[in-house]
Amino acid sequence: MTETDLHLPPPRAWVGPLLLLAGGFCIGLAPIGLRYGLDTLGPQAIAFWRYVFAIPVLLVLLVAIERRMPARINRYIVLAGTFFALDIALWHWGLTLTTVANATFIVNMGNVCVGFAAWLFLKEKPKPIWFVAVFVAVCGAAALSLGGGADGKGDIRGDLLAVGAAFLVAGYMLCSKLSRNRLGAMDVIFWLTVVEAGVAALVVLAAGERFFPATLAGFAAPLFLALAAQVGGQGLIIAGLGRTPAAVAGIVVLIQPVVAAAISWQLFDEPLTGIQGSGAALILLGIWLSQRGIRRRKVRPAAKELQEAVRSAE
To answer: pLDDT tens, 206-228?
Structure first.
């Protein structure tokens, strides 16, 4: 047997980005579910029930898959869950004060900021091609946001809320990455959802919204969001974060507005303009380019590792 035969199999670098893409697709369904649910519940109450309905589902999945109860929660999960719940709250509030175009573009910039935060705090320095991917994706997000200016009057207060939401998105992604370095994906998503439900309950009280809809049919939208956006979307993103550098993950999840725009085109007869279609294409190009910014870790031959272990023991 040669030394080449003892090489470990190369890591499947495509798994993490694929999980993130799938999660981004599911999260892209969130604005659709929210839009259908606003007739029966307020936006903050919808978010609250989204988390509450997801908790028992996640617990059953964790016990069935891992055959154990959740591991102990840590401070990074508490921070990430708080950041995410407040991000959703500010995002919904900001939409009532500024245009959808402004709010969407500003909040999505939080995903890009993840890369710089990871570089600063996690020492995950991206490759030069990552900066090209960022530029392309940002241009795409800006173009995709064009055309929504007629839905309301711009208000600096709403823009500032969106800026706050963008920082919270970056904090959520960064702390989630730190959580995944310490716990499994199932543990992290379960505890994240528990924290988010607690924070969302406080937000509902602060906003003065009612917790319960007039009829049981009013729970349909939150239940859909719980399964599609929370269990599916956020769960897949958390799983992908454990296999992907934070900088790349921040760009990959920009697939969300592309999915939301495409589905809105079909469901609500909101066709994309040529500029918006070009923006969606640029985001997809940026996502593809970002994959070339992943630093591959070299896998050393098993024989060499064995030799070094014997030498150190001597």
So the answer is: 989 999 998 888 899 899 999 98
Instruction: Kindly state the tokens that stand for 113.
Output: 């900021």
Chain segment 28-60, per-residue pLDDT in tens: 777 777 778 878 888 889 999 999 999 999 999
> What does the alpha-carbon distance between residue 29 and residue 27 come to, in Å, rounded to a whole number?
5
Instruction: Tell me the pLDDT band of 64, cut-offs 50, 70 and 90.
Output: very high
CB-CB contact of 222 with 41 (8 Å):
yes
In the three-class reduction of DSSP (H, G, I as helix; E, B as strand; rest coil), residue 312 is classed as helix
Question: Could you give the 3-state DSSP secondary structure of residue 306?
Answer: helix
Q: Count of CB atoms within 10 A of residue 75's CB?
A: 10
94, with CB counted inside 10 A (0-12, 13-18, 19+), is buried
For residue 82, which amino acid is it? T
| SS3 state of residue 305 | helix
